[in-house]
Amino acid sequence: MTRRRKVLAAAGALVLAALAAVFLLEFDAPVLGQAALSRVGAALGTRATARAFRFRLARGLALEGLEASSNFTGGRWSLAADALVLDHRLWPLLTGRVEIERIVLKQPRLEVTGSGRPLTLAGRELSLRELAFTGTTLSRLTGGGRAEAKELRVSRTIARELDGRFTLEKGTLAADPIRFRTDQGRFEATLRARLDRMPLTYSLELRGDPLDLNAMAGRAGAGSFGPATLQLSAAGSGAGAAALRGQGVLKMQPGRLPSTPLLQRLEAALGAQGLVGARYAASETPFRLQDGRATFDAFHLRADPLAIDMRGWIALDGPLDLAVQVRAPRSMLRVAGVSASVLDTLADGQGRLVVPLTVTGTQENPVVRPDVGALLAQAGKGAARGALGKTLKDLFRNR
User: Fold this and answer.
1) pLDDT tens digits for 74-111?
2) Which of 362, 275, 355, 279 is nearest to 313 (CA)?
3) Is residue 33 part of a domain?
4) Measured in Å, how far apart are the chain's first and last C-alpha atoms?
5) What contacts 227, CB < 8 A, 6 or more positions away?
6) 264 within domain boundaries
7) In the prediction, which pLDDT does 90 show?
8) CA distance 164 to 137
9) How far apart are CA 190 and CA 395, in angstroms?
10) pLDDT > 90? residue 322
11) Residues 6 or more apart from 49 whose CB is under 8 A from it?
12) CB distance 252 to 283 below 8 Å
């Protein structure tokens, strides 16, 4: 290689290194950062602060240690994030135009408080794309975009692989559709919410498909419920589930009854063997959601050789109150406090017996009690009918 070529090669390497440094190295950018911070604060309708401002040509501007808060009608919100990153499009920037391609919030935490329990939203990284907004305050902000997050925690629920389109118009947020995954299954939702006043009000259309009932029952990896789907239409206000009201349908595909606390206690109360592991048929159960409870009038599980019917409510935070009837072959059942002879008289013509029970307590620790009084009363009526029949037969025989 000639000396001239060596010089040109060295010069080219220096140019590439310089370009790499310009594109990849980060620089303090207080003037640019303060200007961006003022725009962020104006969009949020409050004053925003940041600990530091870092700029990289290839990525964009990062506002580190971002904090903002403000009052609005009936409440207050606060936002904190490790960083707010404004990713720009590189080519327009090189031609003198700034176009934001994506906004990324790293480790964001949003808290909205009113008269009730605060609503909290936190995640590892929330990405907003395809943004187009006009307006200077939350109540006048209009626009939309696309939201993505690997993990987002809303109160006690963790949503993963979140993706959805949204619009914002004069304080009203609309998202349709939002797709995400939880430990209980995959979901698709449509959401509308008023963000500019308290209490926060919203409406929700939610579909879970497939739904993992084993995970919902705390039996992940060890259960045998079949797949299920959930459809829910609801509206609510505030941060808690108590104000959420709506109607839904739970559809269950065939499976086997797993060893849940409720089924274990039912087996023990009936002295039965064969509930756990019994194969059940598909079912469809409408329910109502109100006051933090899912209430249903008829939940049927048809299994061979038994059937379980339930009505009552299950609270979203654990407690339950159910009236249960188990219909099974007489040979499978023993009930404490009721003699075998009495149970024999209650069996129908097919040799099956219906036992009523009450269930209280919680989903993790249910209290199951056979309704002995109802069984004895039923047996007494049966005995009275038998005695009356015998008397009538004797009367006509004597004639």
Assistant:
1) 778 888 999 988 876 654 444 445 556 778 889 999 88
2) 362
3) no
4) 135
5) 210, 211, 212, 253, 255
6) yes
7) 53
8) 23
9) 72
10) yes
11) 37, 65, 66, 67, 68
12) yes
Residue 50 near residue 39, CB atoms below 8 Å = no
Q: Is 64 helix (H, G, I), strand (E, B) or coil?
A: strand
Residue 360 lies in a domain: yes
* pLDDT for residue 221 is more than 70: no
Q: Which of 39, 44, 35, 40 is nearest to 168 (CA)?
A: 44
Domain assignment of residue 372, yes or no? yes
Print the domain residue range for 375.
Answer: 254-399
DSSP H or E stretch at residue 162: strand 157-169
pLDDT(154) > 90: no
Predicted local distance difference test score (pLDDT) of residue 17: 45
* H or E segment to which residue 120 belongs: strand 119-123
| Count of CA atoms in the C-beta half-sphere (13 A) of 36 | 25
**Residue 307, both tokens:** 């059937």
Q: What is the pLDDT of residue 137?
A: 56
262, 363 contact by CB (below 8 A): yes
- The rounded Cα 287 to chain-centroid distance in angstroms is 17
Per the structure, how many domains does the chain have?
1
Q: Which amino acid is at 342?
A: V
**Hey, what amino acid is at 133?**
F
pTM over 0.90: no
The tokens of 252 are what? 């269950």
Q: Is 234 helix (H, G, I), strand (E, B) or coil?
A: strand
Tokens 């006048």 belong to 140
